[in-house]
Write a structure and sequence with these properties.
Elements (H helix, E strand, L loop, with lengths): L2 H10 L1 E8 L13 E6 L8 H8 L8 E4 L2 E2 L6 H8 L7 E6 L15 H20 L3 H4 L3 H13 L2 H8 L28 H8 L3 E2 L1 E8 L18 E5 L2 E2 L9 H8 L12 H6 L8 E6 L11 H8 L6 E8 L7
Parallel strand pairs: 1-5, 7-11
Antiparallel strand pairs: 1-2, 3-4, 3-5, 6-9, 7-8, 10-11
Helix pairs in contact: 1-11, 6-7
Amino acid sequence: MESEEGEKWVWEGAIPLQIHLHDSEVTTLPPPSPALILAPRIGYLPLLSSLLKPFFTPGLDDTIWFDFKGLPLKWYIPTGVLFDLLCPEPQRPWNLTVHFRGYPGNILTPCDDGEDSVKWSYINSLKEAAYIVHGSSKNVMNMSHPDQLELWRSLLNGKLEAYNHISSKLKLGIIGDEFSGKPNPSPLKSQHSVNETEATAATKASRIPVRLYLWTVDKDFEDFEEAPHFDSWDQIAYINRPVEFKTEGKYFTLLDAVKSILPEFYPDSSNTTKAESENEPEEESYPVIKLLRIQGIEPKMEIPFSWVVNNLMNPDYFVHICLYIKAPKPIGT
């Protein structure tokens, strides 16, 4: 898959949702039918509000929020990432419950301004990504208001070409050799001028923004239907840790990236080769990856990490990785 094709695939990805109004908010008989909606993977749940109005108008009097099996869903996490994380055995359609009252402020951060709250959360993610790549978020902070608005609207409306036109000005493209671990980044083509320091940083970028959602289980399971169900966000480790290509000439894989993000699980990873880790028998003390999902797919662990970056990055310039690990308590905790 070429990177352009992969990017198009990511932008066109969608999750079929069946959304029910919570029983406590039903005010009519018979109760309203569930809403069937195709939600973009790269979108965010609060942005579905306008699509839900025809179904649940009587209840629209407060901040919208959703839950899955009683777990309030974090609105700033892309819809596709939530699905990958919460449904190890994919459920189609994905059954969610919508609420318009009783916002759980003790669990979820405020989303009082609806679309504006989501927009600024997205812009803040871009700033964070820019800081990881360049050591500065100035490119994002200096965006003109029209460019900022066009970038947001392109995401909102699924317009990939418009998004690429604006986002290329941010110089966040991290392009590596797809068949080796050596960083070989080059700046995205753009006529937009930046200062010499930032231009140089763009050509040498080798830090990849990653958000990893980790669920550690201590019991084995053979089938995803048998996977333990979690009912609290406290059970998920939310890790923001950039991945760096540091080894010249080394075949840098997705597994290498995971090890670099989770050194507490892989304290001896620098001395363990890929071949050795595959040939050695599994030990009680060594973690076992039960599930790793990115953009709805479960890539092989030996795939070049540069391929993952080029093809499966989200529009916020982060690679979002959902990971289930069976492991003992991490060393040092």
